[in-house]
Amino acid sequence: MEQQEVQPIINTYHNFLSTISLDYIRPLMTKIDWEDRLIEIKGAKGVGKTTLMLQHILQAFPNIDDTLYVSLDNLWFKSYSLKELADWFYSQGGRYMFFDEVHYYPYWQTAIKNLTDEYADLHIVFTGSSMLQLEAGEGDLSRRLIDYHLPGLSFREYLKFEGIADFPSYSFEDILQRHVAFCFAIKEKAGSIQPYFNTYLQQGYYPFYKSVRSGYEIRLQHVVNQVLERDYPQIDEVTVPTIEKTKKMLMVLAQSVPQMPTMNSLYGQLETNRNQGLKMLHALERADLLMLLRDNTKSLKALGRPEKVFLHNTNLMYALGAKTEIGTARETFFLNQTSELLPVCYPAKGDFLVDNQYLFEVGGANKTFEQIKDVPNSFLAVDNIEIGYKNRIPLYLFGFLY
Questions:
Q1: What is the pLDDT of residue 247?
Q2: Which CATH topology does 3-149 take?
Q3: In whole angstroms, what is the distance from residue 128 CA to residue 259 CA?
Q4: Residues 6+ apart with CB under 8 A from 18
Q5: SS3 for 392?
Q6: Where in the chain is the domain with CATH 3.40.50.300?
């Protein structure tokens, strides 16, 4: 392969790099051991996976031509193979390759496995949809790679991203025990926190909100369509009718969260059966479009009917025209932020059971312990208060977990 054949890929790479800012870098950057030979970064579309990779290149490589970034959905790959590109790059002395949208490349697992087998000193970082599942077989990578998950912005990150204030993250246990001290420190540094929190619930989870403030909800709708129309069929090989039924399922559920509609009624609307309906439901969960709340940790990954269904984050609630009742938004925020780090289940009493030991009710400033009184390790996550007391903890503080 000649230089001129690769030049379009190089030009695109350089153009992307020229748009990248180092003003704000996600905490995952320092958690990744970038010297591992094979690294996977998964996450929902729009959370900043591409930006993270390109920021690392800018930080770590004085000469950017020692590396190569390419998105594997590039039309260039209609004429050339990934192996041809890697062979050329390696012959030029390159040892660090960064692949975006890996699920768009046919038999991508086998292709990457072959590269790691052939070139013992080649380092590969790749990103993929949160739907991506490694499959055992000829191209099994599960024992070779180190994988990381990039979520959307936490409320803590949002405050820093907006230039309001920079705070450390707090462990869940520390929040339970030291929340009053944390809240005094936050109030001293950022002032009244509630207005920022209200804005974050509507637009703050996906970092691209900054570039499209007036059209954020429309852009988010486009992201959802991209996930279901482009990513989903690449990963699960589903048909167009199944894609359309899955989109309809999402919109039906968006109008009923957090309660589940009668499943038989839902399947009837979608003209599908129970097995296919559950597969679509769990595809939406894997895509980070829904959160499925189950009744115990043993069933967290089971393909079964959940107790409750939530949209994945509050920004999606507003973008998809879902019922945006404040009570649902509060519960969605709590589940979204805590489940990123700890298992959360549906309890017999209360709203959420966190880590199999902490029972929570979520509500507004007038919320009481009436529903969970006399239950050990029970807490209230309360909105519209800025400083708590004993087991009453401000809801926004659970946005400081990461």
A1: 95
A2: Rossmann fold (3.40.50)
A3: 31
A4: none
A5: strand
A6: 3-149
